[in-house]
Structures are given as C-alpha cells and as structure tokens.
Amino acid sequence: MSSQAATPVPSAPAKKGGTLSVIAALLLALGGGGYVAYREFAPAEHAAGSAKMPVVPSDPGVIEIEPFILNLADPSGDRYFRLKLSLLIDRKAAVRKAESGLPQVKLRDRVLSVLSKKHASDLTTVEGKEALRAQLLAAVECLLSEPTFFAGSSSAPSGDGEGDDGEGGGAESAPSDAESELPSVHVLDVLFTEFLVQ
C-alpha cells in the first residue's frame, strides 16, 4: 500500500511543477522578445528624434519675458490665462539687448497676438500646449530674425559675448559696421516656466 500511495502523490506535484515550469519559460520568452524588440527599435527612434533636434550652439542664452495674464477668447469671457516663458536663443550676447527697451516690447506684442486668440480648450491638453509652443516659436523666430529687431535698443548684440565695458564711447555710440552685419538671432526653444488656465 505504501507503494500505491506514493505513486499518486508524486504525480500531482509533478503536474503542478510542470505548470510552473511552462509559465516560467513563457515569461522568459516574452521578456527576451521584449528585450530584443527594445534593442531593435529604440536606437532607430532615438536616431530619428535626434535628427529633428536643433544643434545647440556653444554659447546659448535665455531671454526672460515678464509674465502674461490675459482673458481667454472663450465665449463666456470668464476664463483667464497666466503664462511666464523664456526663450532659448543661439547667442548669449543678444540676451541683454532683448530683455529691455523696444525689443522686449516687440517680443511681448508678438506673444500677446498669439495668446489673445486662444480658448481654454486649446490650452488644457498636452497637444494644445505643444501646439502653442510651436506657434510661439514660429512667431518670435520670425521677429528675432528681422535685421531691425535690435534697432530700438541702446546697443546691438556683439558676436563675442562681451558687454560694453565703457570703452569706445559706451552704449550711446553708433553701432559699428561689424554690429550691423551680425547674423540674425535664432530661437532654439520656448520654455514655459508658469502655465495656468483658470
């Protein structure tokens, strides 16, 4: 009887152990397949994404723009929007010029012209925020690339990144030929530092 009782008992655990082995093998196969798929497709996506990203120059700068608070274009008129943004540009030397005077006013005007057309529903989704970022980038890029953008400021940006040190007449002196021939400033990114829709 001992031999008969011992035979059914080992067969039941063997079946349970076999099921666990099959599940473990399945998990291992799925994990291996997932790893192979990741290794196969991730580099291609990363390479494609990196081709779209702009090359960041060696001396980028950030233009801080004062916050915007405005009513949205919703039919009820009771929604407002608060936005603070910064512009990442390709030349640090242009930052000081763009943060005050007429260039700052021109930037604020361009941003307000884009924001004033927005509804709350345009800004509450991730896609809406990214669309706004793209619209603002296009609007300010167009403005910053104009040759007369820095005309209303006290001194044009220099290509060497150095400010006026009081040499050569200071900020009141006329722009030199080198300053008037500077290439346009390009916006690399629009960075939202405050974003509130209420």
Give a topology summary.
Elements: H1 2-6, H2 8-52, E1 61-71, E2 80-89, H3 95-98, H4 101-115, H5 120-123, H6 126-144, H7 177-180, E3 187-197
Give an account of the 3D structure:
It is a single chain. A hairpin with an 8-residue loop joins strand 1 (61-71) and strand 2. Strands 1-2-3 form a 3-stranded antiparallel beta sheet. It is 48% helix and 16% strand. The protein has helices spanning 2-6, 8-52, 95-98, 101-115, 120-123, 126-144, 177-180; strands at residues 61-71, 80-89, 187-197. The protein has 2 domains: 2-52; 61-160 and 181-197, 2-Layer Sandwich (Tetrahydropterin Synthase, Chain A). The chain is elongated. By secondary structure, it is of the alpha+beta class.
Structural key phrases:
7 helices, 198 residues, 3 strands, Tetrahydropterin Synthase, Chain A, elongated, 3-stranded antiparallel β-sheet, alpha+beta, 16% strand
Summary, kept brief:
48% of the residues lie in helices and 16% in strands. The protein folds into 2 domains: 2-52; 61-160 and 181-197, 2-Layer Sandwich (Tetrahydropterin Synthase, Chain A). The protein is of the alpha+beta class and 198 residues long.
Largest sheet geometry? 3 strands, antiparallel
The class by helix and strand makeup works out as: alpha+beta
Spatial gap, N to C terminus = 81 Å
Calculate the mean pLDDT score and round it. 75
Kindly provide the radius of gyration, computed on alpha-carbon positions and rounded to a whole number of angstroms: 30 Å
DSSP summary, beta strand count: 3
Supply the CATH architecture of the largest domain. Answer: 2-Layer Sandwich
